[in-house]
Specification:
With 412 residues, the protein is an alpha+beta fold. The chain has five helices and 23 strands. It has a domain at 68-83 and 238-400: Efflux pump adaptor protein, beta barrel domain (Elongation Factor Tu (Ef-tu), domain 3, Beta Barrel), CATH 2.40.30.170.
Length: 412
């Protein structure tokens, strides 16, 4: 009986739990919903012959403009350093004790102004001795001249010997030479006495005094010891600006200068004090006669008027020199030029609305804009706004812009 019941129980199939059945129906229902949503993404318009896709994300918007074109002269830029036109190390020509200093350190002094005084007493004594020697030589000359006249008369009348006459003549000549030597000694002593006072050889700004009052200084005339440096004086108006040109820049300038009339000066623009304001004017008046073989550069110099003494020898400044005649030049905002190590690029938009990179060669700044010397066309659409959204190869929406200079005149 039990075995029969077991067989009957094994022949009856087991039923699936209700929860599994509900999950299966849920999966089928989800698939139907997804299919319905997929079908709903398309809608039939009009007669049902055309289907339109759902709207996609908008294209990124950039602002683009053609480069600004201006007729500009080519310029070369250099870093220079100011130097004094006149500079002198003040040293005494005579030695002695320094008795007075007649200036304040760093002040402006005029030509001929008294700067230092040296004790004149030793040189006054020397001058008095020379004058006494002159009087002695004058007296000897008068006596020798009288003796020669007397001997000459005696020799003429056969009352004296010719030898005596010749001797008196020799004494006269020696006395005359002694007087000339005494006069020279007076001039020498007067020279030393005059140079006990040291004056400014030109107008300029004097530095600090290197020797204090009471010190014994060595002069250059005695040459017994190295001379003593008292102070340094430099002129400030006008002032030089020295700079070096590379060989290629020098050749560019020479090609431009050779086409100008002889005697024409070359103006330069200078920005001093670490600013970008090239408002100081100067004149290029010297270029060296040979290139430096070690550096490959050639030395040049401009002269700058400095009536207010605002420019100081030793200070650095930037200088610009005209190197070519005016020609059409492309200008773009400096922010539109992207630096890539040693290269420069600008992004443009093609006719198909695709962003493309152009490698360019850049020049200096003009009216707040960067000059482009090569790599860009006048009809290219340069991206000047929305650069973060512009990637080479990406399609973009273009908004028309305009490049405007900061002013009508070149100021950069």
């Amino acid at each position: 009986m039990d075995s029969l019941q077991g067989k009957q129980a094994g022949s009856i199939p087991q039923q699936r739990p209700p929860s599994h059945r509900r999950l299966a129906w849920f999966a089928v229902g989800t698939g139907v919903v997804v299919a319905a949503l997929g079908t709903a993404m398309f809608s039939v318009l009009g007669d049902g012959t055309q289907a339109v896709a759902a709207p996609s994300a908008p294209l990124p918007e950039v602002t683009a403009s053609r480069p600004l074109v201006r007729n500009l002269e080519g310029r070369l830029g250099f870093l220079g350093q100011f130097s004094a036109v006149n500079k002198v190390d003040l040293r005494a020509q005579v030695g002695g004790t320094l008795t007075a200093i007649h200036f304040a350190d760093g002040e402006w002094v005029k030509k001929g102004a008294l700067l230092f005084s040296i004790d004149p007493v030793p040189y006054e004594i020397k001058l008095a001795q020379a004058r006494a020697q002159q009087q002695r030589a004058t007296a000897r000359l008068a006596y020798a001249k009288s003796e020669f006249s007397r001997a000459n008369q005696l020799a003429s009348s056969q009352a004296g010997s010719v030898q005596n006459m010749e001797q008196r003549k020799s004494d006269w000549q020696e006395a005359d030479a002694a007087l000339a030597d005494a006069n020279a000694q007076i001039r020498d002593a007067q020279f030393d006495l005059d140079h006990c006072q040291i004056s400014a050889p030109f107008s300029g700004r004097i530095g600090n005094h290197n020797v204090s009052i009471g010190n014994l200084i060595a002069g250059s005339r005695a040459a017994a010891s190295p001379t003593t440096l008292l102070a340094t004086l430099v002129s400030q108006d006008p002032i030089y600006l020295d700079f070096d040109m590379s060989e290629s820049d020098y050749q560019s300038y020479q090609r431009f200068a050779s086409k100008r009339q002889a005697g024409t000066t070359t103006p330069v623009e200078i920005a001093a004090g670490g600013t970008q304001d090239f408002s100081t004017a100067g004149t290029l008046d010297f270029i060296d006669n040979s290139l430096n073989r070690a550096s490959g550069t050639i030395h040049a110099r401009a002269t700058v008027s400095n009536p207010q003494n605002a420019l100081t020898p030793g200070a650095f400044a930037r200088v610009r020199v005209i190197a070519s005649a005016a020609s059409p030049t492309l200008l773009v905002p400096d922010a539109a030029v992207l630096a890539d190590q040693s290269r420069f690029n600008v992004l443009i938009v093609t006719q198909e609305g695709v962003v493309a990179a152009r490698q360019v060669e850049v020049g200096d700044m003009r009216s707040g804009l960067r000059t482009i010397t090569a790599g860009l066309g006048a009809d290219d659409q340069v991206i000047i706004g929305g650069l973060p959204f512009a990637a080479p190869g990406a399609k973009v929406s273009v908004k028309e812009g305009e490049i405007k200079p900061e002013n009508d005149q070149v100021k950069d």
